[in-house]
Give the backbone structure.
Amino acid sequence: MPLISIIIPIYNTEKYLRKCLDSLRNQMISDIEILCVNDGSTDGSPLILKEYAEKDSRIVVIDRENQGQATARNAGLQISRGKYISFVDSDDWVEPSLYERALYFLENENTALVIFDVNVCGDSAINSNRSMEKYFRMRFRGNLKINGDTILKSAVSPWNKIYRRDVISKCQISFAEGLLYEDNAFHWNYMMQAENAFFLKEKLYNYRIHEDSIMHKTKSKLSQVEDHFFVCLEIFNHMKKYNLLEKYGQAFSYFFEHCLGVVFANTNDPLKSAKIAHNVWFQIRIPNSISVIHALEDENYDYLMKWIGYSPTEKVFSLKKRSQGKILTIFGFQIPISRM
């Protein structure tokens, strides 16, 4: 049985796939399985996967019809056998020491999660590089108890973390299928169940930004921007099921407010988005002191429209004050600067 299961969703990334797979095959520890979920690729990716599976028995290829990244990751989780779980995107690559370094802290620090730093690289013509570097900048160090602040201030991406499979299985944690921004739900649901996390301030994962990258394309899907709210509902239902509302309710309310800001900064129809947010929050209604959420509860859409306050220019660059701190917007991507 392998020590680590590495799950890679793959869709039309033949240009980058070899570098990704080579970085995994060349890890300093060998006790791994590499689960490659081919999500209906139509380029040369399947041939590359076949080639690599033939020369390395640790590589397992799962071919599926295209159903999206969340479904692909869940498919990998279902067949994974490792004690620990890792996710890698097929256009990225990792440093040779990643799993050896992470395993040391998983095995010796009694932690449920290791989070490591990220090297952002790629096309310099893409203006979001600097904002992404700021987003992924690690704000903590060492072995820490998890609370609302650590959840809010940690990047939600699953690929700069290593998880324990027993926590995932016991608490039925998975990616929200059919929704964009599904990483938010996995991030919150796992971290709320973990007692502590080890923050490893070493850049062991190389995140590549390019025109076809999933995150870059996701930002353009404005028709699904309200999925932020439905992902929030997934998180709330998990909190309710496992009696986590008292511990994490206030932090979650701040997160919902943040989602309001993201949606309003990107939506083509703010009033429609506000009404969707109201309908979702009506199912949540966690007590809080956040004025914009109170306005949402009261259907005070005039207040909400004033609170939005994002002109076309401000969607490119702006700094807005929110109840939990400030939000920096750069090309539609929002970064929390500080929180109370």
